[in-house]
Amino acid sequence: MITFPRIALIVLASAAVFATGCSKKPKRPDPSATVMGQSGTGGLNATDLGTFGNTQLEDPNSLLSGREGVIEDENTIRGLLQPVYFAFNQSAISATERTKLQAAQAYLNENPQHNLLLEGHCDWRGTAEYNLGLGDRRANSALQYLTSLGVDTARLQTLSKGDLEAVENADEATMSNDRRVELVILKN
User: Fold this and answer.
1) pLDDT confidence of residue 69
2) What mean pLDDT is reported for the chain?
3) How far apart are CA 129 and CA 29, in angstroms?
4) Which of 33, 76, 163, 172 supports an S-S bond with 131, CB 3.0-4.6 Å?
5) What are the start-end ranges of the H helices in the chain?
6) 170 pairs with which residues across the strands?
7) DSSP-assigned letter for residue 60
8) What's the pLDDT at 35?
9) What is the rounded distance in angstroms from the CA atom of residue 151 to the CA atom of residue 174?
10) No. of H helices and E strands in the chain?
């Protein structure tokens, strides 16, 4: 015969197994927390970007990639300008990456016949929809930075590829390379 203490013991043991045996799903980041940095306002976050308008690049051509790895066809040039990298789940441009966009601005100033495609990428983590949005925020962050440097918005286009080209289940170094905005030169 089952007594009340045995039933209570079975219920408590089952509750303990259930509580410790079930793993929690990881909490998804709030998309509004990544819009143009942590401000969520859609504008540049001054604390994230500092005084970039006063920063002068000594030799913008020093940040242009060498001819090795450059892919050129009749419409585009890929690999000439270095990609801008981002921290996990972030769309704010770090101080170390701003010089790459300043080099892009210098290139556009020297080559008025070319335009620029800002291609936003993410690592494999997150849903496809979330990563497309994050890639778009990253590309638009680069666009806004370039326009603040004086580049005409008519010469800039954005495209989000999200995690379409990301390596799934990659190590941290590979994922760091997947979190970027590619600067693709468009020939007119």
Assistant:
1) 83
2) 80
3) 13
4) 163
5) 4-21, 46-49, 95-110, 128-148, 172-178
6) none
7) G
8) 42
9) 31
10) 5, 6
Dig out the tokens for 30 from the structure. 């709030």
Predicted confidence band of residue 64 (pLDDT cuts 50, 70, 90): low
Q: Which of 30, 28, 38 lies closest to 90, judged by CA?
A: 38
Render pLDDT for 86-111 as a digit per residue (tens, 0 to 9).
Answer: 999 999 999 999 999 999 999 999 99
State the Cα–Cα distance between residues 108 and 111, nearest whole angstrom. Answer: 5
The β-bridge relationship of strands 114-121 and 156-162 is parallel
Residue 152 has pLDDT above 60, yes or no: yes
Q: How many residues does the chain have?
A: 188
pLDDT value, residue 39: 39
Between strands 84-85 and 156-162, the pairing is: unpaired
Q: What is the pLDDT of residues 70-81, one digit of tens each?
A: 999 999 999 999
Rounded to 5°, angle at Cα 30 from 25 and 31: 125
- 178: number of Cβ within 10 Å: 19
Q: What domains can be seen in the chain, in order of their start residue?
A: 33-187 (3.30.1330.60)
